[in-house]
Specification:
The complex is a heterodimer of chains A (about 110) and B (about 230).
Chain A: H1 4-20, H2 26-36, H3 48-57, E1 61-67, E2 73-79, H4 81-104
Antiparallel strand pairs in A: 1-2
Chain B: H1 9-21, H2 26-45, H3 50-61, H4 64-74, H5 78-111, H6 118-132, H7 134-145, H8 148-159, H9 163-186, H10 193-217, E1 225-226
Helix pairs in contact in B: 1-3, 2-3, 5-6, 5-9, 5-10, 9-10
The chains are: A alpha+beta (about 110), B mainly alpha (about 230).
Chain lengths: ~110, ~230
């Protein structure tokens, strides 16, 4: 399990990366993170929404209410142009950390 | 044996909604409710019953107070903006309704006023107060029955668009129409028409000012689309 600080720091690149694959809503984003991390990253459900709202306020993502096939209305989020730029910056920063640690730990470095 | 109280999902969700409504904006509450419903659907598919899936889903979504604090940090002032919006809207509806009641009673009262007695005077005054307070009573009943958040949602759908301008101004012009009708009937006997005309003008200006504040405070318009 990740520490609280790391969960907070990684939520932005994780949300932006998931939305880069296409629009999604809160519940689905949490499911995806849980699935992709193999259960190592567990977000408390309600706390994702402040993250989403902050990203929306900063103009990195946008939202829209839509009706799903089941008839349930959901608030869908999608990436804005600024969000794509922010994602690129995040990628560089996280890979810089990742590559440095990989070298120190004699692991194979990653590239974009 | 004592009969067990049955768990009613609708009542439970309603209660949750009311609890959330005090701390969150209507839109945030709605977003969290779809999350709650999605979680319950998943848990039911895993074999949990209504009651178990409801409580577990509530636990996962979190308590209203810490959620509200985090959401407030993400978007400061949003909840206050919405609260002020509802207060101004309530004031607008109550004042417009009050003017309508006043105008109608004036008209009815006047048509029977040839032989005015203290009884008709009393009936007119009493009915004025009773009907003017009607929206307050309806509002209080919603609050008591815990239906306020649902009513709020319906009203928000109705008023949170620019249609509000047309309805409110239309209503206040109609009120003025009634007042002028009264004036026309009354003018035969009295010449205090300026007061009524002044009132009409004041009412329209006040409505326009309130509507301008509401439009400024209005929550972001939501478009509902069907997914392809």
């Amino acid at each position: 399990m990740l520490t609280k600080d790391l969960v907070a720091a990684s939520s932005k690149p994780l949300v932006l990366s998931i939305l880069a694959d296409g629009e999604s809503y809160g519940y689905e984003i949490i499911q995806k993170v849980r699935e992709l991390s193999g259960g190592h990253i567990e977000w408390s459900d309600g706390m994702l929404y402040p993250v989403l709202h902050r990203l929306e306020r900063d103009g990195l993502i946008k939202s829209e209410w839509k009706e799903s096939e089941t008839g349930r209305e959901r608030k869908y989020y999608f990436l804005s142009a600024d969000g794509r730029k922010a994602l690129k910056t995040e990628q560089h920063q996280w890979l810089a950390v990742h590559n440095t640690l990989s070298k120190l730990w004699n692991l194979k470095p990653a590239s974009i | 044996m004592e009969p067990q109280t049955r768990f009613d999902l609708n009542t439970a969700v309603n209660h949750w909604r009311t609890e959330m409504a005090f701390n969150l904006t209507a839109e945030d509450r709605r977003e969290l409710e779809t999350h709650l419903q999605d979680t319950m659907t998943e848990l039911r598919q895993r074999g949990l019953n209504d009651e178990e899936s409801f409580w577990l889903a509530c636990h996962r979504v979190g308590r209203p107070q810490p959620l509200a604090e985090e959401l407030e940090k993400a978007n400061p002032g949003k909840i206050w903006r919405e609260r002020v919006f509802w207060m101004v809207l309530a004031y607008l509806v109550i004042s417009l309704w009050g003017s309508t009641v006043n105008a109608v009673i004036n008209l009815l009262h006047f048509s029977r006023a040839v032989h005015q007695t203290s009884t008709t005077q009393f009936v007119a005054t009493a009915s004025h107060y009773i009907f003017s307070l009607l929206p307050v009573v309806v509002f209080a009943m919603w609050l008591v029955k815990g239906k306020l958040s649902l009513a709020q949602e319906r009203l928000a759908g109705f008023f949170s668009t620019k249609r509000l301008i047309v309805y409110a101004l239309g209503w206040s012009v109609a009120n003025s129409g009634l007042d002028i009708l009264f004036l026309v009937k009354q003018a035969v006997r009295m010449s205090s028409g300026y007061i009524i005309l002044d009132n009409c003008l004041f009412q329209i200006i006040r409505t326009a000012a309130l509507v301008a504040i509401l439009v400024w405070l209005m929550p972001k318009t939501e478009r509902i689309k069907k997914t392809a």
